[in-house]
Amino acid sequence: MPVCLSRIDGVNGQILDLETAVKDGVLGGGIGFGGGFAEKFDLNTMIQELDPPDVPSVFICPISLEPMQDPVTLCTGQTYERSNILKWFNMGRFTCPTTMQELWDDSVTPNKTLHQLIHTWFTQKYLQMKKKSQDVQGNALEILETIKKVKGQARVRSLNELNQIVIDHITARTAVVDKGGVSVFSSLLGPYTTHAIGSVVVSILVHLNLDSSSRLNLMEPAKVSLVIDMLNEGSIETKINCTKLIQTLMEEDDFQAEIVSSHGLLVGLMRLVRDTRHPNGCLPGLKLLKSICWYQQARNLIINIGAVPQLVELLPGMNPECLELALFVLDAVSTVNEGNRALSGCSNTIPNMVRVLMRVSESCTQLALSILWSICKLSPEEYSSIAVDVGLAAKLLLVIQSGCDPLLKQRSAELLKLCSLNYTDSFFISKCKLTKTIR
């Protein structure tokens, strides 16, 4: 029995029967048609899980450009997903969406043959995916057993092989975790672990779902020490992975602040953030710095290693996401007296903060304004004058006149008042001209 199928490539009304479909590769062959087992699989589930890029165009609804699950055919011979064409009709449109012909009959006919073709094609792909997934899981578990038995270069090769599988396949990650792989990898980290082993182990761990006991186990001093060493001395990929692993450990309720109050850790993070050869390390490094800033003792150490002027100098070249993170860190250290002095002692702090106002996002404006407030309150006469000279007053007026958060407007008004104390009214008004602001 022939079936009329529509195509989104402009070839409409093609007659296609089942034998031709299988022969020409629409189904791809390999699965018996009409055997009954295909109906055991839910079509919607298969479409959602597969999302294949090579769906035959005859299976695609011309309206939604998504695979059809309940295809119906109009009197024009064009086929659509039932829900889509009914919505089209409900909008008062009684035409064929593809040809724009007026319909002489607005009834729709279920295209059972096309539905069966679609179901069979997706079933074949689904079974192939399931088989591949099982093969991947079996291979991953086999390598895991090998890792337990071998040492030296053989272990490094096996770890690298498993690492690639874990990166590429979600199902392999789940299988490895379920079979106790996390404890195996954790046991490989210690004071005598080579970086060749450690770097691959960390790469695997950052792709796995670590439970509370696993995170606590990885917080042992010897393991943390190894991770910090690799953060300072490893490849860029290893440094990023070490950063991500520490970030994961910080999610633990019983996380110990001493772990991130480490001179070596913070120095390594700042090297990662300012590494212009590998800019992809800046974002993960700043994300971890932001998390670390919640701990008071770590803030003092961030200041002591000279991170404040380094971050200030990096601000102009940062993308918006990194910029917001860096401003968060600087705002956090500004709550410490030493941090505030470090910010005010850097000649570019005030100009860079003024540049940020109303340029990136409301969040960045809020953070920059908070930093400026902290600095100007240290010595209003000195620092507010510098700020006004580089255009702060005009920027503050922009904030006050904008539709941003009321609290942000209030802080801007307070800072504007503080800055005006050192000037006569007429002179200060001249400083508020927008042409005076840094561009």
Automatic annotation (TrEMBL):
PROSITE patterns: U_BOX
Broadest EC class assigned to this enzyme: transferase
Keywords assigned: Transferase, Ubl conjugation pathway
GO-annotated biological processes: protein ubiquitination
UniProt xrefs under InterPro entries: ARM-like (IPR011989), ARM-type_fold (IPR016024), ARM_PUB (IPR058678), PUB22/23/24-like (IPR045185), RING-Ubox_PUB (IPR045210), Ubox_domain (IPR003613), Znf_RING/FYVE/PHD (IPR013083)
Pathways involved: Protein modification; protein ubiquitination
Residues covered by the U-box domain: 54-128
GO MF: ubiquitin protein ligase activity
Enzyme Commission (EC) number: 2.3.2.27
Catalyzed reactions: S-ubiquitinyl-[E2 ubiquitin-conjugating enzyme]-L-cysteine + [acceptor protein]-L-lysine = [E2 ubiquitin-conjugating enzyme]-L-cysteine + N(6)-ubiquitinyl-[acceptor protein]-L-lysine
Function per UniProt: Functions as an E3 ubiquitin ligase.
Protein name, entry field: U-box domain-containing protein
